[in-house]
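Box S2. Input/output pair 1.
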Amino acid sequence: MSSNPGSGNSAYDAIIVGGGHNGLAAAAYLSKAGRSVLLLEKLEHPGGAAVSAQAFDGVDARLSRYSYLVSLLPQQVIDDLGLRIRLARRRYSSYTPDPHDGRNALLIDNGDAAATAASFAAVGAPESEFRAFTEFYAGCRRLTEALWPTMTSPLPTRSEARTLAARAGAEEAWEAMIERPIGDSIARSLQHDLVRGVVLTDALIGTFARADDEDLQQNICFLYHLVGGGTGDWDVPIGGMGAVSGELERAARDAGAIILTSADVTAVRPGGLVSYQHDGAEHTATASWILANVAPVVLDRLRTPSRPAAPSSTRNPNHLREGAQVKVNLLLKRLPRLLDPAVGPGAAFGGTFHINETWSQLDTAYLAAAAGTVPDPLPCEIYCHSLTDPSILSPELQASGAQTLTVFGLHVPDRLITADNNDRRRAELQAAVLKSLNSVLAEPVEDLLLTGPDGQPCIETKTTLDIERAVGMPRGNIFHGGLDWPFVEDNAPLDTPARRWGVATDDPRILLCGSGARRGGAVSAIGGHNAAMAVLESGSGGSGPRESAPLESGRVSRD
C-alpha cells in the first residue's frame, strides 16, 4: 500500500466514499479493528451535513447549518470510539401557540407536569386530553425502549421485533405505530386539533406524507423520531453539530485512517476499484470493501458514470423519495417577544417551537403543496441552539444578548423547486417562513435580525436544491431517501453479514454506510457502525498493518 494516497495506485482493506459523520464512524471502527482505511471526501472538510459553519460573513457565530439536534447517536458508539461529546438535555419539549389566538399556547414542560396540564386547559383541550396525551406517549415509549437496542445489532425480522414488543407490553403500540397509519391512532387517542398536530409533526419532518397514507412512510418517520435512546429525547450538541463530526474525525485519524479531503470520487467499479480527482490529477485506489457514505442514488451514478439515469442498484424505491423542507438560519439581537403573556421567551424557545402545525393546518398545507403551491400559512418549527449552548457565539455576541434561530419549514417538497425557479422560490419560502413566525410574535422578527459588517441581515435560506448542491443529498432529502423499518420481513434473505446488518447492495463488495442504509437517517453513526460490523463479521480483508480486534456482541472489543 502506498503511504501517499495521491500517488499512483493504492490498495486498502476499505475505501469509504464520502466523509459525513457515518463515514467517519465506519473509518474509526475499521481502523481500530486493524483494517487499512482510505476515506475520500469531496468537500474541503469532513462532516457532510453534520457541521458547524460561520454562516454570515464577519459574524462570529458558528451555526449547525443543516442538522441541529442529536437523538439517535447510541451511547455504545460514543463509548466504543472514545468520543468526547457533550449533549445537553432540554427541559422544555415544545411550545405551540394557538394559531387562532396567539395569547394562548401549549407548553410541554418536562419538569412540571402540573404546568403542562394547565397549558392543555389554556388552549381549550378537554380535561381528559393531558392524560390521553401522556398515555399515548407512554405506550410509544414501551415500544421504542424494546426496539432501540436492536439498532446496533444484526437486523431482527418483523416477527422477532414484534415478539420484543410483546415482551415489553407494547402490543397496542406496535399495532398503532407499525401496522396501521399513525394518523388512526392519533385521531382515536386525542381530540384537540392543536394537540393532535403537535404529535403528528414527528411523523412528517423531512417526509412528504399525510397522516393516513397507506404506505406508512409517516409511521417510519414517527418511529425514528421517538426511538432515539429508547426515550425519543432530542439533545443539543455542545459546541454545535461540528463538535460531533469533529470527534468522529479525531477518532478515525487517531486509529490510523487516512482521510483525504477535496477528493472527488468519479467512479466506483467492479473489483473494488475507485477513481477520484485530487490536486488536479486523476487517481485510482483499490480495496476489498467499498463503503458508500453517499446516498444510494449517488452511488448508482458513480457505478454507472456513463449512464447517470440508471435505476437504483439496490432496487429500493424508497431511495428515490424527495425531500420536503426548507431550512432557514437566523441570528437575532435577542429573542422576540411573544403574544402569550404567560410564557417567557426562554421557555418558549427552550424546546421545539411549533408554528401553524395543528392537525388540520398540516393536512391543508400538504394538499396545497401537492397541488404545486407553497402552503400559506407554512407549518414551521424553530430551534434555538444558543439558548442551551451559548458557546457557538463569540463572547461579544453572548454579552449582547444575541440568539440563533433555526427554522424547519414542513411540506415544501422538492417537486416545487427547479434549477430555473430556485432563486425565486428561495425568496418566496423565506417570506413564507417569516410570515408564519410573525403570526405568533408580538413584534416582527425582521426587526431583530443582526446585520453583518457588509450591512446584510443575518438570515440564510436553504431549499431542497440548495441542500443537494451543498452536501449532495439527492432532491434535498435529509435521510438520503425514504426511511425503512428497522427490521426486515420474515422472508427476507439474511445469508450474508451485509444483509444481516442492513447495509447490502447488489454487489457483495459494496456496502451502504450512510443514511441510505437500513436504520440510517439523522445524525446517529448507526449506518457507519453497522457497515463496519458487516465487514468485520465477514472476516476478510485484513491486510493492514495492525491486528484485527475480535467481535463481541456486535462490538469491537477494546484492549
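Box S3. Input/output pair 2.
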Amino acid sequence: MSLQDMVEVGAGGTHQARYEREIIWDSISTRLSALDIGDASLVFGRLDWADEQGGDRLYVGRVAVWDDDQEPVTIDWRAPAAEAFYRATGSDPMGLSRRRHFVTRGRELLGVEDEYFGETNGRGRMPLVGEAALRAGLEAGRTGRLADAAATIQVEQDAIIRSPLPGLLMVQGGPGTGKTVAALHRAAYLLYTHRFPLEGQGMLVLGPNRLFLTYIEQVLPSLGEAGVEVSMLADLLPGTRVKGLDDSGVSRIKGDLRMISVLRRARRDRQRPLRADVTVGFGLRRLRLTVAQSEEIVRQARRRFRTHNRARRFVEEQMYQCLTDSASRTNSPGPDVETVRERLHGSIELREALEWMWPVLTPAHLLHDLFGSPALLRSAAGSLLTAEETDLLYRPRAAHASDVVWTADDAPLLDEALALLGPRPGHKQADSIRTYGHIVVDEAQDLSPMQLRMISRRSLNGSMTVVGDIAQATSAWGHDSWDSVIEHLPGDKDPRFAELTIGYRLPEPIMDVAAKVLDAAMPGLVPPQSIRTEGRPPRFVPVVAHQAPPSGNGQGNGQDGDPSHARLTAAVVGEVKAELSVLANGNLAVICHNALADAISEALTSADIDHGLVYERGLESRVTIVPVELVKGLEVDTAIVVEPADICQKLPKGMRALYVAVTRATQRLVVVYARPLPEPLLPKEA
C-alpha cells in the first residue's frame, strides 16, 4: 500500500506528475519481479576478506538487497565483487581469507561449508568450489525442469559466464559439463553487466526443440531476467505453423547453401515479361503495353531493387507510364499519368498483367508454389541440384499456402525467402527481421548451414555465445568440427574458444561406459572427467525367449504381434517397476528409437504404470518415454535405454545418438536389449 501511495497523483495532477508516476511504478514493478525468486534461497554464500582487504564480509545471493541505510545485505552473484566467490583459489585467493557456502534445499539450510585461504588458516583450496553444495544439488532428485546453478558455478564455467560481450564465443562441452547452465547464466550476467545497450537491443536464446525450451524456461526468470526471448528457430517466423522434421535426405538438401541460389532463381521465375501485348480502352483511345516494354520494366526492376516486393510500386508506375506514353503518340494531346492511373486502376486486364509480371509474394507463397510444381522446381534447381534431389523437394500443393504446416527444415528456407522478397507493401513492421544485441545458441553442433545463416541474419553486431558438443552431433547436418560451424556465423574478430572438461552429471561407472561409446563414435575425442567417483554400475538386461508379455492384451503393440517385441516391452515394464521401487524421488526416462515409443507406452498402460510421452507432457511425469531423437540436452535420475542396436542402425549418426542416450542419467543406467549389443557396450570378457 505504501508503494501505491508513493506514486499516487490525484485528480488534479499534472502530465509531468503522471509521467513520473509511470516511471516510478515501472521501476518498482521491475524490482519486485527481480525479488520474486520463488522457493529458492536468497543467500548461498559469504566472502570473508583478509585483514589487509579490510576484513569485511559480503553475502552473495541471487539478487542484491540493501537495508534502510543503503548498505548491502546481499550482493548479486553477477556483481564484480562476487567474482572471488567463483574464482578464488589457493594460489590466487583474490583477497579472501575464507569462502563460505550455505548448503540449502529450497529455503531450508542443510549445512555450512567453509574454504580457507592462506598459509595460516587451514586447508587451502578444495578440489571443487563449494563441493558439498555442488554434490547436494547433483544428488537431489530431478524435477523435469533445469534449475539455476548460481550457488554452485565452478571456475571453468564462471570464466565462460564472465567472458567479454563482443564477438563470438564458442563453448565445447561434453554431457553433464554444464554448458547449458553456463550459457544461460552468461545471458543473465551480460544483461546485468551491459544493461545498456542489451535491454534495448534484446537478447535471444535459441534451443533445438520445444521440449528443450520447456526444460530450461525457468532458469532465467529465477535469476531475475524475464525479458529474454527464448525460442526455436521456427518461432522467429511469426504466423508460420511448423511441426516435425523432414527425413534425413530431404533435410540434408534443405540445409545446403545451394538452396540460396535455388530460391533466387525461384524468385526470378516470378518476375516475368508479358507473353502478349496488353491493350485497354481509355475513352476513344486504346492504350497499349507491349511485350518489349514489359521486358525493359522487369530488367530495370531487377537492376534497381535488392528485394522483390520493394520493386512492386516501381513496376506498377512504369506500366502506367508506358500506357500514358502510348496515348501521346496520337496527334491529339494525351492524358497525364495520374489520370490514366486513376481511371484504369480497377482494370482487370492491368491487374492480371501486374500480377503476372511482378506479384506481391510472401515466403509461404513462394515456397508453396515452388515445392508444389515439378516445372518450377526444375527451373529453379537447374544444374544446382540433381534430378533425384529435385524430386525429393516436391510435395503436393495444399488448397492455400496459409494451410501448409511446414517442417523445421523449411524454417531457414522461409527466412531466406523473406530476405529475398522483403516486406510486402504496407506490412513493413510485420515482415521485418528483428535483430538482437546478443544471441545464445545451444546444441549448435546439429545446425545446418542454412540454419546458421538464419541465426546470423538476426545478429546485430556479431555478439554470440554458441555452445554444444561435437560428439553429440546427430542430425543430418551434424558437424565434425567447430570450424564448419564458425564459417557460417558473423564476426569481424577471431572467435574465442572455451572448453568444459569436468563432468558433473554422470557417476564414474556410467561415464566409463559412455567413454567407450564415444571412442567408437568420435575416435580421439576426450570425454569429460567425472567428479563423481562413486555410483552404481550400469545394468545390462538381455531379453530372454521365455519372458512373458505384459498383462493386458498379451502383446503390447508388438508390431503385427511380433513376439520378440512383446518380450522386449515386457522386459522394459519389469525394469521400470524395479527401478521405481528403489527410486526415492526424481524421475525416470525410457529412451528408445521413436518406432518403439508407442509399443512401450501401450505395455506400460497395460501394466497400470502411470507415464507420459515427452512430446505431450515434457518431463512432468515420474516416468516418461523419450525418443532418442528428443533426449539431447535433458537429464533424468534413471535412464532405461531400450534396444541400442536400433538406435545405432536406424539413425543417420547412430553411434553418436547412442552416446547421447547413455549420458542422460544422474544416478542409474539400465540397458534393455533383445538384439546383439553394439560392440562398445559389450563386456570386456566378450
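Caption for Box S3: Residues 50 and 581 are 50 Å apart (CA to CA). The chain has five domains: 2-35, 41-140, 145-242+370-500, 271-360, 503-681.
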